[in-house]
Structure formats: C-alpha cells, structure tokens
Amino acid sequence: MAASKSELDLDVVGFGNALVDVLSHQEDDFINQIGSTKGAMNLVDAERSAELYDLIEERVTVSGGSAANTVIGVKSFGGSCGYVGRVATDDLGDVFSSDMTQLGIEHTTPRAPTDDPTGRCIVFITPDGERTLNTFLGASNGLTPADVDLELIARAKLLFLEGYLWDPPEAKAAMRYAASAISDGAQVALTLSDQFCVERHRPSFLDLIDDHVDVLFANHHEVMSLFEVDRIELALDLIQERVDLAAITMGADGSVLITPDGRTSIGADPVARVVDKTGAGDLYASGVLYGLARGYDLERCGQLGSIAAEEVIRHIGPRPETSLRQLAGKLV
Questions:
Q1: Measured between alpha carbons, how far is 222 from 262 in angstroms, rounded to an integer?
Q2: Alpha-carbon separation of residue 55 from 31, 49, 65, 124, 297 (angstroms)
Q3: In angstroms, rounded to a whole number, what is the distance separating the alpha carbons of residues 50 and 186?
C-alpha cells in the first residue's frame, strides 16, 4: 500500500490474539495435577478454561495477549501504536477495548457477536517465576482478512505479528494479507511465540519469514527448534542468512541482535527476585521495536529491550508498572 515515510505516524501496529489474562500463583505440584506442560502455552476449550478458572481463588485479571503486551510496552516508552485483534461484544471484550482506549492504542477491529466470547488466558506462575499458559482463544480465533484495517496497517513503521495467531487458517491468511499491505519504508516483524508453536508450524513459519519478515524475535529454544538443531550457534548462523535482523533472547545470558553484517550482544542485569516471567519476551520486543521505529542503533535497541523485560519480571502481570520511558532515561 502506498504511503510516504512521513505518513507513517504509528511506530508499531501489533497483530495477535486479543485475550484477557487471568494470573494466579501456584506450586509445581498443581501444574502436574492439572496435566499442563509447565512453561508452555496449552490450548484449551471453553469448558476446560472454565474448570481451571474455578480451581483458583486468588487471581489478577488484565487484558493482554502477546502482541497486545508488546504494543502496551511500546506505548510506555512513549511510542505511538495500533492493534489488530478480535474480541466479542461481551463484558471481557468491553474490558479489553476500554483498556486499549485508555492507553491511547488504536484498536479498530470489528467486534464478534456475544455467542463467540472473548478469549482468555489463565496463567499459572510457579515459585521460579515460570509461567504456564492455558489459553481459550475464543473470538480471537475467528479473525479474518476482512477484519484487517488496511488504513491502520498503512500508517505503521513496523507491523508486529504474533506467532500464536498462526494456528487458525483464516487468521493466518489475515496476517499474510496485512504483511502484504505495509507501506513503502515499513517493516514486518514476527515473534515465534513458543517452542511448541514452532513445532506445529515450522515449514509455514519458514515460508512466512522468507516471504515477508524483516525482523524476527525468538528465544534460544525457539530458534533452535525452527532449524531443528541442538546447538545455539548453528541456529544463529542459519537465522543470520534469513532476515535483516534477528533479536534472540538467551535468558540470564542476555540477548543477541543479529544482522547479515554481524552480531551485537546485550548483557542482562541481575534481578534480585524473579516474580513472574509472564510477558518478558513481549516486553523485550517492545524495547527493540521502539528503538527501531526511532532509528536507534542496535545496541541501544537491545538495551531498551532488556530494561523492559527486567521491569516486567519483578512483579505479577505482563504490563510494566513503572513508565519504561522513565526507566530508560537518556536512552530515549
């Protein structure tokens, strides 16, 4: 879609599963008892979601979804954002849309009818800070190309696609449709989201990367799974050949930003206590994307990603509780 770079007035438009997150602290034994895979995103149906919800007494509820968390982070840095994601005409959908409006994030996706309820993600957080996601996709699963606001996409410097949304065929088509409609001078970014997601979609992810993706986000497990190798160095060599930029997180070892010309390593500052890893990767992406949208060098982009990730793992929930712009100081 034609638009001059001066008309790209949105730093990032996120594209993903619009969900309401329900967060609860639990012990490892609880995860084993309910039969979930610890540290993974487990897809559940409406009945199973209701069963799990009834098992927990203390909970924190907040609108979210991976790409939504990322654009909320970009906004906290002072960026301008839009979001594509489908919720229903129900109470949870009202909560989600109201949150986006209050945060100043443009969300124009048509609402689903009430009999196609808003999705929710029940997140169990174990004492090590690991999060186990049990996701009922609900209305978010029904996104189609017709739901995509092309005028919103055309205003984005970066279109950020969420790998979790790659499951439904219509949503997959919608993501490709949006990626084909970006303006001249804009870029497409993709997060692989989850190792199990990669295993489900490895060939089509590689096709998407080759066809549309300029910037790839992944953790070291996901990128090794993408190429079916057991050494991170092999995976890094392979991704270096496929995209303009790959931002790979390495846990306590920080992250590395890779271009065809070289690599930039970013150290991770020690965190006294990891409370909840929910959203760490999403917020890391927000810092890097904000930096890219503003034309910063890669080291600075990576540092912003680390600041955002380190903030969010210190407390419950996938959103920053402190202004990321304030935390970043002179870096922004």
A1: 21
A2: 12, 10, 22, 11, 47
A3: 41
Within a domain: 294? yes
Query: pTM for the full model?
Result: 0.90
First vs last C-alpha separation in the chain: 30
Cross-strand partners of 255: 249, 266
Pairing label, strands 106-107, 41-43: unpaired
What range defines the domain where residue 147 resides? 5-18+65-114+141-324
In a domain, 166, yes or no: yes
Which residues make Cβ contacts (< 8 Å) with residue 38, sequence separation at least 6? 28, 31, 126, 130, 132
Residue 232 in contact with residue 224, Cβ under 8 Å? Answer: yes
Could you give phi then psi for residue 239, rounded to 5 degrees?
-70, -25
Nearest CA-CA partner of 258 in 288, 229, 287: 288
**Of the candidates 192, 19, 183, which has an alpha carbon nearest to the alpha carbon of residue 97?**
19
Token code pair at residue 155: 């205003």
Interstrand relation of 131-138 and 118-125 (parallel, antiparallel or unpaired)? antiparallel
**CB distance 143 to 111 below 8 Å:** no
pLDDT tens digits for range 182-226: 999 999 999 999 999 999 999 999 999 999 999 999 999 999 999
Q: Residue 273 has which token pair?
A: 């206590």
Q: What is the CATH number of the domain that holds 245?
A: 3.40.1190.20
Gap between the Cα atoms of 190 and 141, Å rounded: 18
- For the segment 160-185, what is each residue's pLDDT rounded down to a tens digit? 999 999 989 999 999 999 999 999 99
Give residue 234's Cα distance to chain centre: 25
Residue 25 within any structural domain of the chain = no
Order across the sheet with 41-43: list the strands.
Answer: 41-43, 131-138, 118-125, 19-25, 60-64
- Report the number of distinct structural domains present in the chain: 1
Domain contains 23: no
